[in-house]
Amino acid sequence: MALKSRPVTIGLVQHACSDDLDGNVGKTLDGIREAAKRGAQIVCTQELFRSRYFCQSETHDFFDLAEEIPGPPTQQLADVAREAGVAVVGSLFERRTAGIYHNTAVVLDADGTYLGKYRKTHIPDDPLFYEKFYFTPGDLGYRVFKTKFATIGVLICWDQWYPEAARLTALKGAEILFYPTAIGWHQDEKETYGTDQHTAWETIQRGHAVANGLYVCAANRVGREGTVQFWGQSFVSGPMGQLLHRAEDTAEQVIVQQIDLAQVEVTRRHWPFLRDRRIDNYEGLTQRFLD
Questions:
Q1: Who is most buried in 14, 57, 192, 282, counting CB within 10 A?
Q2: Total count of domains within the chain
Q3: Active-site pick, 17, 44, 157, 217
Q4: Containing domain of residue 41, as a range?
Q5: Within-domain flag for 1
Q6: Are the CB atoms for 227 and 128 separated by under 8 Å?
């Protein structure tokens, strides 16, 4: 007997950012509205959509961009969620207290209710991605949020490379995993490494979908900021790793893609990776290195 279909439509908002904070917010809110008009029920923003990607330098003044959560930016997202009748995942720069800041995603339900937040766990420190200067590692653990339409998990950008993060979120019941993202090419590396870098980024996330039998959605920004060209290509992957939709690499776009949550059950029945995990054999995962 076939499982009953559980259709849900996903929206991802991909755009460039400038020094105009209000303009950046306007693009995001308009993108959420557009996605809703096209049938989206859950919409995800790109990482830190309110500003340019300020982590390209270590500049104390940029801490002024941080806001309390919940606070005015959260309310803007709540208002558009309520207005459009969609659940929203929004990426914000959180001021927790003086000297403690987080890279945080908030989740609003379709009636504007604040469901909670996830703080980015893995913080990079690479050339032009100096996030350790700004962000304290998240301390809320891996979380799921029961929205009107689905149970979702949220991780953020650099978390994308860690199968442990995806697994633990899946084990808490996520049916869809969202990754607000800001990733791009260094100007002097794109020609040599660009294709391989992008392929690795997409492949590992589609691998998370396969390993956990869930949908994976990544929303990335586009445009050149300094010497970094953000590569866009926001995408939706099915639970067998199939690429359902991918945005362009330079264009501002709103992706809308219908999925069927019944496929999570179907996939896990046929590929029962969660059933066959040897939880008695994984103690080494809590160590830095097995000497």
A1: 14
A2: 1
A3: 157
A4: 7-286
A5: no
A6: yes
Residues 127-162 have pLDDT tens digits of: 999 999 999 999 999 999 999 999 999 999 999 999
Q: Catalytic: 37?
A: no
pLDDT one-digit tens code per residue, 180-199: 999 999 999 999 999 999 99
**47 catalytic, yes or no?**
yes
Q: What is the DSSP letter of 149?
A: S
The yes-or-no answer on residue 67 being catalytic is: no
What's at 58, amino acid-wise?
E
The residues that bridge with 259 in the sheet, in sequence order, are 8
> Which tokens is 256 given?
């809308």
Average pLDDT of the chain to the nearest whole number: 97
> Would you give the distance in Å from CA 73 to the centre of its chain?
17
Which residue out of 47, 94, 131, 225 is catalytically annotated? 47
What are the pLDDT digits (tens) for 203-256? 999 999 999 999 999 999 999 999 999 999 999 999 999 999 999 999 999 999
Q: Residue 112 sits in a domain of what CATH number?
A: 3.60.110.10
Residue 117 structure tokens: 């937040």
Residue 2 confidence (pLDDT): 78
For residue 70, cis peptide bond before it (omega within 30 degrees of 0): yes
**Residues 265, 270: Cα–Cα separation, whole Å:** 9
Q: Which helix (H) or strand (E) holds 276?
A: none
DSSP reduced 3-state for 115: strand
Work out the angle between the directed axes of helices 190-212 and 163-171 (0-180°, nearest 10).
30
